[in-house]
Amino acid sequence: MADDALEDDKPEDIPLAIINKPDLDPFLESVLEAYFLLNQGRTMSIGMGVSRTFGIPACDVIRVAEAHGFDPLYFLRMTRALDAVYLEAANKT
Asked: How many domains does the chain contain in total?
C-alpha cells in the first residue's frame, strides 16, 4: 500500500520518520488505520484568527470499534491516547 508509493519517491524526499517507521503488529496496524478513518471526521473551529481542533466524539469511536470487531473500551482508550498526541500538536499556537 503506502510502501509501494514510497518506491516512486526519491530517497531525499521521504522523511526519516517514515523510512524508519516501526513495524506494528497487524492488530495494532488495524487499530491505527481505524483511528485515521475517525480522524477524517474531526471537528475543527476557526475564529478570530485562532483555529482549534477538537477530540473525536466517544460515540463515533465506539461505533467504529464495533464495526471493526474491537473491544469498545480498549479502542476508546487507544483513540484517546493517540488523540492526546495529535491534539497537542494540532492546537499549538
From this structure: 1
Q: Which three cell numbers stand for residue 80?
A: 484517546
Q: How many CB atoms lie within 10 A of CB 89?
A: 8
- Give the range of the structural domain holding residue 69, as residue numbers without chain letter: 23-90
Determine, yes or no, domain membership for 66: yes
Query: Residue-wise pLDDT tens for the chain (93 aa)?
Result: 455 554 555 566 777 877 788 888 999 999 999 998 898 887 776 666 666 677 888 999 999 999 999 999 999 999 999 888 888 887 785
- Number of neighbours of residue 87 by Cβ within 10 angstroms: 17
Is the pTM above the cut of 0.70?
no
Q: Is residue 16 part of a domain?
A: no
Does a structural domain hold residue 78?
A: yes
Would you say residue 82 lies in a domain? yes
Residues in the chain: 93
Q: In this structure, what C-alpha cell is assigned to residue 67?
A: 464495526
